[in-house]
Amino acid sequence: MPMTVASFKELEALRSVSLLPLEEVSNTFPQTLPFSQLYPSCCSNIRNFVNEYYMFSFVNMQSQHDVDEILRKVSDYATMLIKISHSMSFSSQT
pLDDT value at position 94? Predict the structure, then answer.
């Protein structure tokens, strides 16, 4: 189900957690957005994963380069999945 924001305050809260820029979203309300209501939760989960991964790696790994390389690969994959989902949402609205 597409996500709907009813106010500027809701849009700003969404922008604060979004992993993708939301510049194309206008400031007219209510507005239906091109992704599901789960998107903010997914973004928060990814951010939490990254933070927890860094805490884990700080204790358990010797090389910061290795940590950064592993995290880069994981975040690239997650970003790719988000972009695919985002583009599928746009194409299904047309």
Answer: 52
